[in-house]
Amino acid sequence: MTHFTANSPHARDIASVLHPQTNARKHRETGPTIMTHAEGIFVHDDAGNAFLDAGAGLWCASLGYSNERLAKVAYEAMKTLGYYQIFRHASHGPAIDLSEKLLSIAPVPMSKVLLQCSGSEANDSAVKLVWYHWHAQGKPEKRKIISRRGSYHGSTCVAISLTAKPEYQTGFGLPFDGFLYTDCPDYYRTALPGETEEDFSQRLADKLEALILAEGPETVAAFWCDPVQGGAGALPPPRDYFQKIQAVLRKYDILMVADEVICGFGRTGHMWGCQAYGMEPDMISCAKALSAAMQPISAVLLNERIYQSVLQQSDKYGAFIHGYTYAGHPVAASVALETLKIYEEIGMIGHVRSVEPVFLRELGALRDHPLVGDFTGIGLIGGLELVRDKATRENWPAEIGLGARVDAHARRNGLILRIVGNRIAFSPPLIITADEIRELARRLRATLNAVHHEVSAL
């Protein structure tokens, strides 16, 4: 067991903090990594180590880890109106301005914006709106929701039920009934021999239709999807996937909800991931880069069809009974609005597109490494598939702990990675330069070389 002095931040953390997605028993022995400050895409710990963060924190630090302009906006907003709620007909300028801005840049026509505090809350709220809509239409039995295996959509009880990753549900008595899962569109892992991407997409659309028919189309309310599947390790869809999926949804009048929490605001080289893949959702959830992670804020964008149902329910019940204390917080909304202005001023979308070829080329070049089976990506998001055998695509056995080994060696090389199963997911801050991408790839190759040498000796 590692020993810490009684008053060190490490010891105080162990004594007081319960960490999300952390092995509580192991944490008592190892303690935390204490981050102290940041510059651009680099974060520094209390031991003086600097790390290039290839994941932008939790996919979200789009402008890096410090921004004086946003700090000033937050300060001024806090002085002017440090808090007010948007319940019961109350409002304020930042909430109005941000909502108007989001509607003006939406990938498809949207009618209203529901401001929330996190991506999980946004997806949770969107589920309620789906159910609210079908109740308004006199179809309360249309309640089941389909998401995709390997997906992650949040940590509330409902959002984790959308999340088709059993390890996130174990021990909580979840998922709730009525949440269904269809295939993960992982062409590399699950395509049949000789199957083209288009044929693979059609097979998955056919399987979705079979699931809907087995459940009864009259009971299926919505389909949840992120444009690039973050929970599956930053997995882009195969060709024609969303076109074929949307055809099935329209056939049975099933709503599509696009989870843009990771992909929104430039990550794919488009303002929205929906634009990259021709998606036409009924609702959009967004967060993370909305405020460049500088403030906790999210939003649900809903189309006119859903809004008309809200109006009908208000006629029936008197009010839309839903909300969070800090939803539409004036400080968070001010920072988010300024973040969107910064994206426009610096040409963030153009920047992502300009460095995308370097990103795809430098990380794609690692396909020649003995540990790497494939790399797929778009914009500044992508995933590297780790394998034991390139020919058979065999995985390393769990007892080898490949992911933990990669993480440990990456830290020694000054690199923070996000490892999801057999994939390394990349989503660096959107401000990353071409030279920094090359440095990322250099550190990654050194990491993989060290891991390969280590596991080859086992």
UniProtKB/TrEMBL annotation:
- GO annotations under biological process? biotin biosynthetic process; gamma-aminobutyric acid metabolic process
Which cofactors must be present for this protein to function?
Answer: pyridoxal 5'-phosphate
Q: Does the UniProt entry include the keyword Glycoprotein?
A: no
Q: Write the record's keywords in alphabetical order, separated by commas.
A: Aminotransferase, Pyridoxal phosphate, Transferase
* Domain of life where this protein originates: Bacteria
An annotated Gene Ontology molecular function: adenosylmethionine-8-amino-7-oxononanoate transaminase activity
Transferase as a keyword? Answer: yes
- SUPFAM superfamilies given for it? PLP-dependent transferases
Q: Name one Pfam family in it.
A: Aminotran_3
Q: Which family does it belong to?
A: Belongs to the class-III pyridoxal-phosphate-dependent aminotransferase family.
* PANTHER family the UniProt entry points to: ADENOSYLMETHIONINE-8-AMINO-7-OXONONANOATE AMINOTRANSFERASE
Q: What is this protein called?
A: Aminotransferase class III-fold pyridoxal phosphate-dependent enzyme
Origin species: Siccirubricoccus deserti
